[in-house]
Amino acid sequence: MNNHTDGQAPLTRRQVVAGGAAGVAALSGGCLGSVRNLLGLASASQVSLRVVAPPVDWDRRANEIAGQLVNRLEKVGVDTRFPLLPPEQFREQILYRRDFDVYVGTMPVRSDPDFLRPLLTSTRTNELGWQNPFGFTDKALDERLDAQRRQAGADRADVVRDMLQTIAGEQPFVPIATDRAIAAVRTDAFAGWERTRLRDPTWLFEIEPVEESVDGQTLRVTAKDKRITERLNPLVPWINEFDLVRSLLYDPLARYYDGAVRPWLAREWSIDGDELTVTLRPGLRWHDGEPLTAEDVRFTYQFVSDTSLDSTEAVYPAPTFQRQASLVDEVTVLGERQVRMRMDASGAVAPDALTVALLPKHIWESRTNVVDAQTGLTRAITHGNTDAIGSGPMALKSRRRERSLRLSRVGNHPVNRDDDSELARRFGPLAFTELVVRVTPSDLTMVSFLEEGKADVTVPHLDNEVVSRIVTNDELSVATSPSRTLYHVGFNARRRPLRTPGFRRAVAHLINKASVVDSVFGGYADPHTSPVLDESWIPGNIRWNGGDPEVPFAGVEDELDADRAREHFRAAGFHYGEDGRLVY
Fold first, then answer.
1. What pTM was computed for the model?
2. Strand blocks (E) in 492-541
3. Rounded to an integer, what distance in angstroms lies between the CA atom of residue 238 and that of residue 207?
4. CA geometry: angle at 408 spanning 405 and 410, to 5°?
5. Which of 20, 177, 216, 330 has the greatest count of CB atoms below 10 A from its CB?
6. Domain CATH number, residue 159
7. CA distances in angstroms from 27 to 32, 132, 232, 379, 385, listed in the order given
8. Average pLDDT, the chain
């Protein structure tokens, strides 16, 4: 919900001062050196990059892609460091501190191109989460990112294609591939694992007991991410699209399923011009028994837009759901179960605003303290939320830090009610009355738990290298589906030489996406030239054609042609010293 142009707060004096300090730091770290070079006051500087990635035991594929990139950067004369960061530190440096040169990792992406607006809009470079972590700026692109959300049909498609053409040319990050979601499942307890995408919020809603007469079953899940027991905060950004917290503990007004955004906690909505009127389902309650009302809806959109609730000069938006909330200019309570939203979007985009996870006002309104003004952290974001009071079809029953999490089915949730509502008919009731997540140290240990009968399913993030072990066990099977998790190379355009589009393109030419899909993912991935998944949006001249037509690999098969690769860096305005090192 915005009170200012483009969803941003006006610059305060404190923000201006901080920005000035950052500008001086950047100048002294890069631009000043360039000025000194031009004046003949200093020798040329060698190009040096720090490439960060998670360790092998956390994400082997990102690690291997980064290793290949580092090796090829060295071959073309770039001095490169390759530190490996634990998952929490990796996420902090990329999504909070913006302390990186280049990284290789994953992010959740969508089929609809509106997700690119916060990801690449120039005014988002100082915010948290997936709000332009790259520090990328292009004012003309900003205008098109704004324009596409207010248009529909062919007009919107034309703007989006132009927008994607610009992104392909500038390469603020390099899309590589979306992996296939892979889970190991036991065949003796539940079925229906592949009825929907494995990482979609409704994935576990689709399964059913193998024996229909069985009631009161427990679904046992294994995961290697211990954070699932530590952080139950729906405002904390994740690096992939699967999140049990937002799937089962917290609910939005609408969810995307069966090919469209459809009512969830909303019973219905209507659009009249720039106004969207939403009516809640009757009898909604939070897990602590308090009624869920229209006032909670109004509060949620205000809180996501500014987690300090106007208590400070600056605005502190939540790292997640900013895109959806920015579609809404104002929320007015019309009654106990009805709100009216004034929209800043066309009817083609507006329903996506309803996919924000709702928050109980009586719990979250006290979490407004600013914890770190420099990074924009408030207590709402740093709070572990270990009591996790939501409105989802399952409630938190217990947890053991770094070991396990237990959820129980909520009988009066619309999915679980014994009535004739469309939601209950489509999904309910859930096939399990309890869900237990047990944390294990590795992918192999997760599979071992299933082999020993200690679990029913792994989280759908298994490495493709363990598939061969699963298929040799008659009691296990492999469930797979396309994902919306994009492996990519991210650049910090706040720093030299990464602010130069030609340099970023030259780095992109070092990556053989087809080979990565085969050798790193074992074929369990789909290569990408654009971050938008639906090809109907993508201009034909930049679509995948066996390679990336915009930044084709500078080599033959998987062998880098170092001379050809160096020419890309020279074309970007860089040159080589007598020792063969790249300088500027």
1. 0.90
2. 525-527
3. 25
4. 145
5. 177
6. 3.10.105
7. 5, 21, 40, 33, 40
8. 90
9 CB neighbour count, 10 Å cutoff: 19
Expressed as residue numbers, the domain containing 442 is 181-250+392-483
Distance CA 482, CA 465 (A): 17
The enclosing H or E element of 583 equals strand 582-583
Residue 41's pLDDT band (boundaries 50, 70, 90)? very low
> Which residue among 428, 458, 483 closes a domain?
483
DSSP string, 48-106: EEEEEB--TTT-HHHHHHHHHHHHHHHHTT-EEE--B--HHHHHIIIIII---SEEEEE
Q: Which of 360, 544, 498 is nearest to 31 (CA)?
A: 498
Structural domain contains residue 313: no
Give 64-108 pLDDT, tens digit per residue: 999 999 999 999 999 999 998 998 899 999 999 999 999 999 999
Number of domains into which the chain is organized: 2
Report CA torsion sign: 302, 305, 309, 312.
negative
Q: What is the CA radius of gyration of the chain?
A: 24
Same domain, 458 and 476: yes
Distance CA 323, CA 472 (A): 44
- Which tokens in the block code for residue 22? 């950052």
